[in-house]
Structures are given as C-alpha cells and as structure tokens.
Specification:
Oligomer: single chain
Radius of gyration: 19 Å
Distance between the termini: 23 Å
Largest sheet: 6 strands, mixed
Number of strands: 6
Strand order of the largest sheet: 3-2-4-1-5-6
Number of helices: 7
C-alpha cells in the first residue's frame, strides 16, 4: 500500500480519522501513524496495513489524540461527528474496512419447528429488513459526508486499487482472530453483506 494513501481512514463501514499534519508531533509517513485500538486484534490489523496502534479506552480517545498518544482511529464515519471529535480530527478516508455489525438472532430450533408458510414470512421479513438497512446506509453515508464537509473535515478517497490492497494485507490477520470453522462462518456472513 502506498504511504500516500495514509492521510486518514473511515467509512459507512469502518475507516479512520486523523489529526492535521501540522498538529502531529511525529513525521507523517504511513509507518509513523499510530491509531487508537480497541484491542490486540485491531493493533494486528493496523500493523498489517503499515501503521501502528495503541490501546486506548474510548473515554480517553480525545485526550490521547490531542496529546499525540494516537493520531486517529478506525471507526464508522459518524463517530467523530457524534463525539465532537471533528474539532480536532480533520482528515477522513472512506475505506470501508469492515461493516458495522447489526445482527438479528433467531433460534435455529425454533425456526426449524416452523411450517413452510411461517418460515416464508420470517425469510421475507429478514430480506425486507436487510434491504431497508442497505437503503438507509446508502442515504446515511451521504448525510454523514455532508456533515464532515460542513465541519471542515478533508475527505480523501482511496486511490484506485488501494482498498483491494488493504483487504489483501488485512486477510492475514483473520486467521489469528478466529479458528478455521468460525472464520468460514464469518467470511460467509461478510460476503453476504458486501454489495
């Protein structure tokens, strides 16, 4: 991945926000960016992408960024708006790293006990819910983008082909987070929502 792509990262899935270059105490090559991480899995992802991470509790994120402990974070695009972080996080790249999860769980025992008509109703409701969610996300993404622009956030799109490179680099971290059987379930679920 080219260092030029690492001005920042975030998305309607998940990406990253960073502070302006002039505010960072470190030089700004991709290897010098340090992102707030939730856990060791996020640090592994950040390192695979050519940056570094540091675990910071969410309540300490603003302080960590303003004091130079971290340069930004990977989060859904509305995070910086919702938390007021657009006061100091002024760079954003929609990278679509991973979907924000919204899950509907039903009992397999219960579902298999239903008749065909009832299963059809459940299946139709789930399909309608997925479509409504996808439509909402598409509309929401443009609303969030407008809010970023109004807050003076510079939006930098990834160069052609960079997201694919990032996905390939990240792929190596998947097996370290999940056993093979769970990884195949996760991959199948991810593929079902990737439009």
């Amino acid at each position: 991945m080219a260092c030029a792509s690492w001005t920042s990262i975030t998305s309607a899935w998940t990406s990253a926000f960073t502070i302006p270059r002039s505010r960072s105490p470190r030089s700004r090559t991709c290897l010098d960016l340090r992102f707030r991480a939730l856990n060791s899995e996020q640090i592994a992802l950040q390192e695979a992408l050519g940056a570094t991470g540091t675990i910071v509790s969410w309540s300490e994120v603003a302080n960590a960024i303003q004091t130079g402990v971290a340069d930004g974070y990977f989060n859904p695009p509305n995070s910086a708006i919702r938390t007021g972080h657009t006061e100091f996080l002024k760079h954003f790249t929609p990278a679509d790293i991973t979907p924000s999860s919204r899950i509907v769980l039903i009992s397999e025992d219960w579902y298999t006990s239903l008749g065909d008509e009832e299963k059809g109703q459940i299946d139709a409701a789930l399909a309608a819910g997925k479509k409504a969610n996808r439509d909402w996300v598409n509309n929401w993404a443009s609303e969030v983008r407008a809010k970023h622009e109004a807050a003076g956030v510079t939006i930098t799109e990834l160069a052609e082909g960079e997201r694919g490179k990032m996905a390939e680099l990240a792929r190596a971290t998947w097996a370290t987070s999940l056993p093979d059987d769970q990884l195949s379930i996760w991959t199948e679920a991810r593929d079902s929502v990737a439009d």
